[in-house]
Amino acid sequence: MAKLVSKTYGDALFELALEKDILDDVCEEMVEIGQIWKDNRELADVMMHPRITIEEKVQIIRNIFDGRASEVVTGFLVTVIEKGRASELMSIIEYFTGRVREYNNTSVAYVSSAVELSDGQKEQIEKKLIDVTEYEKFEMNYSVDPELIGGMVIRIGDRVLDSSIKQKLNAMSRSLSGIRLN
User: Fold this and answer.
1) For the chain, does the N or the C end have fewer beta carbons within 10 angstroms?
2) Distance from C-alpha of 18 to C-alpha of 132, rounded to nearest angstrom
């Protein structure tokens, strides 16, 4: 049911933003609203509280976002609140931003390396990913994991490329443990 809700609302917002030619702007605003929602747990709690009327919730949303967010985004948030779907807002945002990424032929890549990568190395990795995948752009996320010893692990969606020394040592260990000596 939750997937259906996020798809229905996410698709509606996507179509509206596309029709008004403000897709990227709306996506940026929705990402920011998602961050606000995560950072301000009290706001989410108020929007889901059963004793606070819908009218009061709508007024709170308007007080916060009128003049700070576009009319499309504010109106969308009001609709979500009026329909009692505040608890689904984060999944709606995730679905919507995923749909925008898909439309823009963009993906998210997570790169873990044993040491901090230079800007030049980061550019090379992104260029190589664009060359070897069907995507035109990547939202790159880098992290350092000293346990990798060397090399890196790249995750794109459910695909993982693990070229770390740690993985190679583990594979060698498994291979050697299977050898029987006479």
Assistant:
1) C
2) 29
C-alpha dist (Å) from residue 103 to 14, 17, 64, 98, 99: 10, 12, 30, 9, 6
Distance between CA atoms of 6 and 32, rounded to whole angstroms? 18
Q: What is the pLDDT of residue 173?
A: 82
* Distance, CA of 106 to CA of 104 (rounded, Å): 5
pLDDT digits (tens, 9 = 90+) for 12-36: 999 999 999 999 999 999 999 999 9
- CA–centroid distance for 97 within its chain: 7
By percentage, how much of the chain surpasses pLDDT 70?
98
Domain ranges of the chain: 2-102, 106-177
CA distances 24 to 27, 75, 141, Å, are 5, 17, 20
For residue 138, what are the CA distances in angstroms to 47, 108, 167? Answer: 34, 5, 25
Fold of the domain spanning 2-102: Peroxidase; domain 1 (1.10.520)
Helices and strands, counts by H and E, the chain: 8, 4
Question: What CA–CA distance (Å, rounded) separates 35 from 77?
Answer: 14
Whether the per-residue pLDDT at 10 is higher than 70: the answer is yes
